[in-house]
Amino acid sequence: MNKNIVRVEHLSHRYSESWAIRDINFEIDQQGVLGLLGSNGAGKSTTMNILCGVLNQTEGNVFIDGINLRDAPEQAKRLLGFLPQNAPLHLDLTVNEYLTYCAYLRDIEKKQVKAAVEAAKARCGIAHFSHRLIANLSGGYRQRVGIAQAIIHNPKLVVLDEPTNGLDPIQILEVRKLIKEIAEERAVIFSTHILSEVQATCNDIRMIEGGKMVFADTMDAFNNYIMPNSLLVFLDNPPPLAQLKAIPGVTSAELLNDHSIRLRFEASDTISKKIVELSVHNGWQLTEILLEKSSLDEIFAQLSNRPLK
Ligand SMILES: Nc1ncnc2c1ncn2[C@@H]1O[C@H](COP(=O)(O)OP(=O)(O)OP(=O)(O)O)[C@@H](O)[C@H]1O
């Protein structure tokens, strides 16, 4: 058995003139959720479409459970389920009719089709809508039907392209929960441009920007990496900047106006406490202290200049 369900090697794709992705490499474990994060146009859908055999890459290789997708596409595709960005639903069919149709497309033996449809519906919490027309389902339930078709043949890998796009906040929470549940039995990769989505759902993160992989590690490593490292400090009676710069751990102090100062610091859990103590002791009259969080754009920019580990 292969340790990784997916191995992507030196993957590049060019649409006519320009490269959409360039030299992408990653692996996916047998189980768990991997998030592919990137801003609009970063190359997520291109990567997903190649991974599922919908698009033929210009260069590089994709192995699904050790099978080269280019050499044996039929065999490799049997191992995966795919929910594209626009779910391929037939609105004029009922949930049962649609999933039965998908089961036949997936080459499930006739006598096992009913059981496969029932299992997928139960897994996705849509059994009570078996006879409902898909056109009459809410966005969240339509997405569940989309996920049900992706797992109907019990694949080892499920690929979901922006699965929570267009859903309301409650539906987003429900779909995230479902993604985690289906990943208990298999590997799931999903793409998104929303950082909090990956943070809430994934064990691992791969981040692409401008067609290049800019971060590949665990979610914990990512969270450590983007830990805030600057503070906004508001002091009614600020000391000279040199005094603030001299605080152990502080790497720079920048005066923003008469009373507000940005302090950058090295990784430290106690820096805020230290500043509060010093303010009381020296009469700086601290009125507010804020941790500055990086925006996703800043993180992308930061990571784009950072060598891959
Ligand atoms: N069929 C196509 N023909 C030409 N260029 C394309 C095509 N599809 C995508 N591109 C370009 O390739 C780049 C990557 O697009 P891709 O759709 O993979 O990004 P994405 O990260 O999925 O973005 P989004 O979140 O907006 O879907 C973009 O510059 C896009 O304009």
UniProtKB/TrEMBL annotation:
Record-linked SMART domains: AAA
Ranges where the ABC transporter domain occurs: 6-235
Keywords: ATP-binding, Nucleotide-binding, Transport
Xref: InterPro entries: AAA+_ATPase, ABC_transporter-like_ATP-bd, P-loop_NTPase
One MF term in the entry's GO annotations: ATP binding
SUPFAM superfamilies per UniProt: P-loop containing nucleoside triphosphate hydrolases
Similarity-based family: Belongs to the ABC transporter superfamily.
Name under which the protein is recorded: ATP-binding cassette domain-containing protein
Organism: Mucilaginibacter celer
